[in-house]
Structures are given as C-alpha cells and as structure tokens.
Amino acid sequence: MQKTKSEDRLNKINAQVQPIGRTYGGGSGSWQNGMSATGVEPQVGVDPAAGARRTGRQVERQVNMKATVAGGICGGVVGIAVRGLAQEGSPWGPGSGFGDVIGIPALTGFAMAPVLAIAGLLLSQRRPALVNFTLAYFLAAIATTIF
Asked: For 105-132, what is each residue's pLDDT tens digit?
C-alpha cells in the first residue's frame, strides 16, 4: 500500500517530536518542543468533552419534554379560543366580529385534536416526540374547553 501525503506529513511531525520521561499511563512526561503534533500533551484515557456530551437517552428525553410542552401550549390556546366562542362576554364571543375570524381556525384545531392523537399513536415507533405533542395537544384542548 502506498502512503498518502497526509500520512507522510504526520510521520514526519511525529519523528521530530520525541517524548522525554515517562510516556505511559497519562502522558505525564514533558515533550521536547513543548507540545505534541496536535499542539497539546496527550493524556491517555481522558476525554475533555465527556462532561459536555449528552447520551442519546438524555437528548431524547429533552426533545420529548419540549414536544409535550409545545403540545400543551398549542392545545391550551385552541381550547381557550373554542371556549371563548361560546361565552357572551368574551371579545370573540357570539355577536362580535372577531368570532368569525377566530371561530373557524379554533373549531378546526379542536376537531383535528383526536385525529392528530390517533395519527401520533400510529406513528409512535418512528416519531416518539410526535406522540407526546399530539396527546398533550388533545388533552389540553379538551381540558381547557371543559373546565
């Protein structure tokens, strides 16, 4: 096999930088030119970004929580809009001009809540965050309208 130019360059750099002292365990020996080929003294077994990384499960929980909160907020807004359509004193209630503007989107969003919940349950294997969003949306829309 032929070596590429980048491998030749790395071998040349590594040949120029020779460790002095102990070179095993944690890279505790000093380096001749003050640094290694990467610019820092290597340490075996230490990952500086390990504390900053999140595991896949933590990221998944965070995404699911965001979806749940977003679904609850959207469902609450739709529920408040539908509830206001039936109340006499509300700004978009019966007899007001805003009732026509807000009524159709609010009733559409309210009617689509069970359809979205069923679709979310059917797609739960591929999109777990969608289930959280749709169920929170459905429950918030129903609860806000009833209570």
From this structure: 999 999 999 999 999 999 999 998 999 9
The segments of the chain whose pLDDT lies below 70 read 1-3, 15-56
Nearest Cα neighbor of 141 from 85, 74, 66 is 74
Contacts 24+ apart (CB under 8 A), 127-130: 128/60, 128/64, 129/63, 129/64, 129/66, 129/67, 130/67
Is 127 in a helix, a strand, or coil? Answer: coil
Domain ranges across the chain: 1-50, 56-146
**67-104 burial by CB neighbour count: b if 16+ within 10 A, else e?**
bbeebbebbbbbbbbbbbbeeeebebbeeeeebeebbe
Q: In angstroms, what is the C-alpha Rg of the chain?
A: 30
